[in-house]
Amino acid sequence: MGLRHPQTDQIRLEDVFTALSNPMRLKVVRTLAESGPTPCGSLLDGVPKSTLTHHWRVLREGGLIRQEALGREYTLTLRRADLDERFPGLLDAVLRAARVPAPG
Length: 104
Prior knowledge:
This protein is of the alpha+beta class and about 100 residues long. It has one domain (about 10-100): Orthogonal Bundle (Arc Repressor Mutant, subunit A), CATH 1.10.10. It is built from five helices and three strands. It has helices at about 15-20, 25-35, 50-60, 80-85, 90-100; strands spanning about 40, 65-70, 75-80. It has a three-stranded antiparallel sheet. A hairpin with a 2-residue loop joins β2 and β3. The longest helix is centred in the first third of the chain and has 13 residues, at about 25-35. The chain starts with 12 loop residues before the first helix and ends in a 5-residue tail after the last helix. This is Transcriptional regulator.
């Protein structure tokens, strides 16, 4: 059984916002936007595997990433083109806002 990745037209805005509402998941999206496809194991050092699995599922089912097996490990890829097609400008706006330090 393969991993669930929604089709572009099935990506829901509320799922995208839910996925991006967690600081760890937002960090993953920022990293993928800057670095491109990245092995799952090289992101979020020191986080338990069960927690990573949960975050990958939320990001994947939210339509933000594609998680694919390459040999014995999985690689994460940001679905930038799909997100831009479905919600033009949203990802860029989120990434810009994520770079701005929080007030206070």
